[in-house]
Amino acid sequence: MKVATPGRLLDPELHWQPAQRVAVPADIGNWLTDSSSLTRRLQRFGHFSVTPLSQRVVRPQPAEALMLRQPPQHRALIREVLLYLDDSAVVFARSILPLTSLKGANRVLGHMARRSLGAELFRAPAAERRAIWLARIPPHRLPLAVTETCWGRQSLFYKRGQPLLVAEVFLPGFSAITGID
Fold it and tell me: Of the residues 36, 45, 117, 180, which has the fewest C-beta atoms closer than 10 A?
């Protein structure tokens, strides 16, 4: 999977909706609203790996700061990765970790390299997923070279009482690997 423009973010104009307000097909809906570890679930379908695309400390987009209940001027570590099954990119993930959340035992979340953030989130004490928002994302709003509209979810987690936001976009390769149409 090719990154269309290095460092380009998910479109800030995406209109994320609370999961309960979005009608989605049952097959993908099961993945979008699942509260368990996406990493563990994907590992059942093949060799799982993480390819980092970018990691930087910047201000989150205003909508992200609002979802995190953080002042817009606060900075965060923003990490973007592709999740692979075998040789196919199946999920694009964008994590927003406020610098205030990366203290104490949570410091490890800022040093994931090629490891899955999800694996750490669900390690004891497991993070609590407090909200899920969904969106259908047209190709021109993704920082990747894709030609199809994709489903995405954005989750607000609290790990050791500290917030972080994770957006996951299920790429066209996801359907082929998991058998979802």
Answer: 36
